[in-house]
Design goal:
The complex is a heterodimer of chains A (413) and B (233). Chain A has 413 residues and is of the alpha+beta class. Chain A is built from 12 helices and 10 strands. The relative contact order of chain A is 0.20. By secondary structure, chain B is α/β, with parallel strands linked by helices. Classes of the chains: A alpha+beta (413), B alpha/beta (233). The interface between A and B is large, with 38 and 43 residues. The complex binds adenosine-5'-triphosphate and magnesium ion (MG). Magnesium ion (MG) binds next to α1 of chain B. Chain A: One of its GO terms (molecular function) is transmembrane transporter activity. Chain A: Keywords: Cell membrane, Membrane, Transmembrane, Transmembrane helix.
Chain lengths: 413, 233
Amino acid sequence: MPRRAAITLTSSHGYGPSWLHLVREPVENLRQLGRRAVLALLGIAVGCMAVVALLNIGHNAEREAMNVFKGMGSDLLVANVQIPGSGRSEALPNVATLDTAALRQAIPDITAAAPLILTSSDARLKGHALSTTILGSNADLPGVLDLQLAQGRFLSQFDTHSTHAVLGANVAAAWENAGIHAQPGDRIQIGGYLFQVIGILQPAGQNPLLPAPPDDAILLPLEGMRRIIPSPQITSVLARNPNGATLVQTSPALQQWVEGRMPGYEVNVQIPRLLLEGMAKQSRLFSWLLAGLGSIALLVGGIGVMNVMVMNVAERRREIGVRMALGARPRDIARLFLLEAVVLAATGALAGAAVGLIMAWAFVHYSGWSAFSFSAAALPLGIGSAIATGLFFGLSPAMAAARLTPVQALRDA
Amino acid sequence: MQRVHDTDLIRLENITHAYATGASSQAVLYDVSFSVPTGQSCAIVGASGSGKSTLLNLIGLLDEPTSGRVLLAGEDMTNADAESRAIARNRIIGFVFQSFNLLPRLDALDNVALPLLYRGIPQPQARQAALTQLERVGLSNRSHHRPADMSGGQRQRVAIARALVGEPSLLLADEPTGNLDSQTAQDIIGLLLSLNRERGTTLVVVTHDTGIADRMARCIQVRDGRIEEAGHA
Ligand SMILES: Nc1ncnc2c1ncn2[C@@H]1O[C@H](COP(=O)(O)OP(=O)(O)OP(=O)(O)O)[C@@H](O)[C@H]1O
Ligand SMILES: [Mg+2]
């Protein structure tokens, strides 16, 4: 008999507690650890909450910023024309027309171009006056800005000398609010002239790069602006280049062309797409910065876990000794305490993630932003880093416990 | 790995043990050799501080001797690593401590089942076996009590059930009755001796009580770090 026993005495095949038991035991132990576990858990929870909430808020802030700029076509170029600040402004002749056909010929990548003349004036419909922006442009404008008509038609190249007008969505809505229904065929008075409404636009949204939102404007033919202001002056040229590859190269060409037609003026071309990309980048950077803040909170939580685990190991030294006497190997002891740290961190992480999500949702909700959008990276990142923190800070106490010899552990402290 | 004297469950050869105390070290056991054959019951007696617990810890693979060899069931455990020693403790040794050493968070049943869980036995079977052992020590109706809710004698019986659950060939008890009144102490020793008689479990008991020592088949006296066979009074 002893010979048989000797053969299997120290074989480790199949030895060691089952995984089920390995996981159940730390959960049970932590439940009995009570308030101290809750405190360590709180540290991790706050860290994880910060990571999840800040990443989600950052993500939604980015989306919100993108939404504001969504109206800007990704293939748009905006050339702004300015009087140079050197004081010779008086000498510069006003330019009120541009040959956009020539522009398209000069830069074939540009498929549509629309110069803008801008002023503000009162407009009167059925006796009700409204102070609005008057925007002079050409027939290409809907194509350049993706404007859609709600009613009627847009200005065509045959309208250049007619007294036709198209209403922006908000202008029509403003009159509607005043009890006056505007529709194609109505006559509105702007300055000393009567214009006939031929169309009403659908809302087009915001575009901060435009000198004025088309929604808030009454659109007239470029040439018709002379009826409202004595010396109209083109302030912007909008152009569209659907070829994304040459969008950036088109910019200096457009600048040169406009400078050539408007000598003496200062022209600079902005590309909304580049601006958009820059903003997205900046906003992502901001998100990561916030997440970094969360990581610091996590680090503090991790130190809390380490503190609890060091105390835990010290207080349960005798238990460690008993377990060793009963057959726990060093790795069984290490696993026991490591898993306790991980369970602690994971519980904190889950609670923190839930609170973080609620906080982010509430923030987005009360900021009046559009619907909450869930950041896919936030949850795995927040929970993962919280658990990794627990693992990292639990490692050293667990190893210290495993390194005890049975007699050391069993001896009265 | 060399095997000798198959009939000896325990064999100590020229054991010397010293505890490191600061810079110096204090020798506790000097050149101790003895063996215990399978199935024997053996008392270890001696004055306080003479080295009885030290000796038992070396037999039980809880500590390593400074020099000398320890053989259990014919296998030389002297240079075994911590993992092999743990496995050997689990497979062949059952411990009974003076202070019971039950885990306070676990109820009686789970305390008794613990050695089997480390052996890799699934919890339902381990609990079933634990219940059988609790019945044997007369505590099946206390299986869901925590140690704190039990008397000293009951706790020690739970501890004995835990020592027995793995069907060990060796029971090591360090003053198992030191915290019990004399009647309970007699019951506990009776229980240990009946196991020794009925199942042939080798029994080594450290005790101060000559009455208990007399009930063992053999008595070893530790004096100034050396041992001598003591005849029964
Ligand atoms: N970990 C230790 N470090 C230093 N010295 C120790 C250690 N453990 C025990 N000793 C010393 O070794 C000697 C023997 O101790 P041991 O515990 O073996 O005695 P014992 O015979 O069991 O005594 P008791 O009957 O009081 O339990 C004592 O002098 C003790 O002070
Ligand atoms: Mg002792």
